[in-house]
Design a protein that fits this description.
The protein has 170 residues and is of the alpha/beta class. The protein has a single domain, classed as Maf protein. Helices cover 39% and strands 19% of the residues. It has a five-stranded mixed beta sheet with strand order 2-1-3-4-5, with helices on both faces. A hairpin with an 8-residue loop joins strand 4 and strand 5. Helix 1 packs across helix 2 and helix 1 runs parallel beside helix 6. It is globular and about 40 Å long. It holds the Pfam family CinA. This is Competence protein.
């Protein structure tokens, strides 16, 4: 186990992701918003991860989602930053801006503020895009995590995102 300040369960899952994707011959990229680089940090905690982990984009503001990941302002204005449409566009953008085979995007409301009745604190949206997959094959999900503090929401979101990076046979 690497010497880390990250939660053990996060590093253990990241190691599983690196090993499984290496075995599958896949590279991965991550587009993060509410997790602020936590998924990328976990993946890069694993020695030798550079042959699997291609890129991490931390796009916290809507302007950066648009500029770096090419998420359209129309999508952001119509559906909001915390939406399946935005997460899907972020995942697609991470694929286009990298050479990765698979990308996962995370966007949500970690708290303590920022939540609404429709999207309370703990609302996190995930999307996975795979290079060469049919564009209408959207893999996306909105989850509502327990609001056990900002760190707790971010950890739950990072764990979920790592799970999405596991190949189907892992």
């Amino acid at each position: 186990m690497p010497d880390t300040v990250l939660p053990t369960q996060l590093v253990e899952l990241a190691e599983k992701v690196i090993i499984a994707n290496r075995r599958a011959g896949r590279t991965v990229a991550v587009a993060e918003s509410c997790t602020g680089g936590l998924v990328s940090a976990a993946l890069t905690e694993i020695a030798g991860s550079s042959d699997v982990f291609e890129a991490g984009f931390v796009t916290y503001s809507n302007d950066m989602k648009a500029e770096l990941l090419k998420v359209s302002h129309d999508v952001l204005d119509t559906f909001g930053a915390v939406s399946i449409a935005t997460a899907w566009a972020m995942a697609q953008g991470a694929l286009k801006q990298s050479h990765a085979d698979v990308a996962v995007a995370i966007t949500g409301i970690a708290g303590p503020g920022g939540g609404t009745e429709q999207k309370p604190v703990g609302t996190v949206v995930f999307a996975r895009a795979e290079r060469g997959a049919s564009p209408d094959k959207v893999v996306a999900d909105m989850r509502h995590f327990d609001n056990d503090g900002r760190g707790g929401v971010r950890l739950q979101a990072a764990l979920c995102a790592l799970e999405l990076l596991l190949p189907g046979d892992a």
